[in-house]
Amino acid sequence: MNQKLRHLPELKAIARHVMREHDLLPEFSDQVMREVAALNAPVVSDHDVRDLRDLLWCSIDNDNSRDLDQLTVAQALSGGAVKILVAVADVDVLVTRGSVVDGHAKHNTTSVYTAAELFPMLPEKLSTNLTSLNEGEDRLALVIEMIMNEEGECIGSSVYRALVHNRAKLAYNAVAAWLDGIDAAPEKIMVVPGLDEQLRIQDRVAERLKNRRHHFGALSLETIEGQPVFDGDMLSDLEVDQKNRAKELIEDFMIAANGVTAKYLKARGFPALRRVLPVPERWPRIVELASRVGERLPAAPDAMALEEFLLKRKKADPVGFPDLSLALVKLIGKGAYVFEVSDDPSLGHFALAVKAYTHSTAPNRRYPDLITQRLLKAALAGEPIPYRNDELTMLGRWCTDQEDEASKVERRVWKSAAAFLLESKIGHWFEAIVTGASVKGTWVRIFHPPVEGKLVDGFKGLDVGDRVRVELVETNVEQGFIDFARAEKSESLSMM
Fold first, then answer.
1. If you average pLDDT over residues 274-284, what whole number do you get?
2. Does residue 69 fall inside a structural domain?
3. What is the 8-class DSSP label of residue 56?
4. Which of 147, 203, 394, 468 could connect to 156 by a Cys-Cys bridge, CB 3.0–4.6 Å?
5. What is the DSSP string of 138-170?
6. 449 preceded by a cis bond (ω within 30 of 0)
7. Quick check: 421 and 237 in contact, CB under 8 A?
8. Using one digit for the tens of pLDDT, what is the confidence trace for 24-41?
9. How far apart are CA 3 and CA 6, in angstroms?
10. Is residue 312 part of a domain?
11. Within a domain: 335
C-alpha cells in the first residue's frame, strides 16, 4: 500500500467519492452559496417571541461541535418539581421552505459524519453561525417547556418562541468528569454565577427521567462507538467513544422534548413525522440468546422483560455487556420516519418505550427536525398546516432512505480508515462477535480496534450474537473491505 494513502486527504477523497455513490451531495452548489451569502441574522419584531435571555442557558455537546442545536436550563419549583426548558435553534427563520438551501438539505436530509470529514446538511454560515446557538450570542429559538415532578413524570408542558442567549459552550467529557467527581468544574461553569448548581439540578432531573423511562421498558443498551484519532494527517488509532453522564443528561432531555413536541402537534390536530421503531421481527433470536445464560423471555416481544434481562446481564458481565448490546441492536432493527395524522393510533418506539415520539431537537443536522419545526411554528401561529399528507408520507420515506444511505457512507469510510490500521495485521487472529447474518453475508466485529468486517469463510451455522475466533485475511482501503475467515477448529462461543 502506498504510504501516502495513510494521509487524511486520501480518506477525504474516499469519503467524497462514497457520498456520490450513495446519491448524497458532498458539496454545496454555487446557487446555494450565493443564497446563503445574502442572508443576515433575522430581526426580531414578533410580539409573540418571549425574551428569555436572562436565564442561565448553556449548551453541552461534543468537544469539537460547532453546530449547536439546543440549549437547556432548569428552574426549581415548589414541592420538588422542576421546570426544564429546552431551546431549539430556529433554523426555519432563515432556511425557508422551497429555497435553494432548503433543496440541498431536503436532498441529503442529514449531516454525514465520516471518519475523514463532516458533510453538514447546511452551509457553515448557517449551521455554525446564524442558526447555531453560539456562546455569547442572542438567538431565536423554539422552547419546549416541561414541568417534571419528583418521579420524573411530565405534569405540564408548553411550546413557544423565544429569544435566548447561550452563557457557556460546554463539552460532554469535561462536564461528565466534574459531575462524577473525577475532575474540577470546567472554568466556563465557574465564571458564570449559579451555573454549577443549575447543572446539578439538570443532572438530578435527567436521572429521574431515565429511571422512569426504564421502569416502563426503555432499553439499557451500551454499544461501542469508535472515533478516529489523527496525528496531523496520519491516522494513528481508532478510539472507543464511551457514553457518560453528560451525554445521558442531554439524551434524556431531548427524548422528553421530542415526546412533548409530538403530543403538542397531536393536541392541535396537526400531523407529524413520527420516529418509530417497531417491535423486533427477530424476537425469537433474542429469546434464544437469553436462554444461553439461563434467562427466559416471553414468546411475544416485551420491552419491560427485555430491560429486566439487560440489567441482570450488565450486573453479571459488565465487560461483555457492550457485545450483548450490539447483538440486540442488530436484532431489534432500525428506526424509521412515518407520517401520522392526529387521529391515527400512536406509533411507538420499542427501544425508548414511548408512544408519541418525533425528532425536533436538531434542525441544523436533520431535515425531519426542520419539517417538525415548520409544523410547530404553524401550529403556534394558528396558520394552516404547511404540508399535505401525501407530502409528509413521501418525506418520511425519503428521510428514512437517505438516513440509511448516510449510515452506509459513514460505515464505509470508517472501514477504509480501519483498513489502514489493520493492513499490517494480515494473518493475525482476533476474538470476534457476529453482528450480521443474512443471505447477503455474515459480518463480525473484532474488539480492538472496534472494527467490523465480512466473514468470507467458515460462516455456516453462525447467527447474530455468536462469538468466534477469526483470522484477518485481506484489507482494501479504497473499497473499505476487511475480510476475515473463521478458525478451522474454533467453536461458536456464547457471547454472554
1. 92
2. yes
3. -
4. 147
5. EEEEEEEEEEE-TTS-EEEEEEEEEEEEB--EE
6. yes
7. yes
8. 999 999 999 999 999 998
9. 6
10. no
11. no
Last residue of a domain, one of 400, 416, 432: 416
| Span 334-390, pLDDT tens digits | 999 999 865 555 568 999 988 889 999 999 999 999 999 999 999 999 999 999 999
Note the pLDDT of residue 2: 42
List beta partners, residue 138.
Answer: 165
Under 8 Å CB-to-CB from 264, ≥6 apart: which residues? Answer: 157, 159, 376, 379
Alpha helices in 216-363 (DSSP H): 245-267, 283-291, 303-316, 321-332
What residues contact 43, with CB distance under 8 A and at least 6 apart? none
Instruction: Please state, in angstroms and rounded to a whole number, the distance separating the CA atoms of residues 66 and 129.
Output: 8
Picking from 77, 96, 88, the residue whose alpha carbon sits closest to that of residue 36 is 96
Q: Which of 416, 435, 466 is the last residue of a domain?
A: 416
For residue 444, the enclosing domain spans 419-486
pTM for this structure?
A: 0.91
- Between CA 75 and CA 14 the distance in angstroms is 48
490: pLDDT strictly greater than 50: no
Supply 78's cell numbers: 415548589
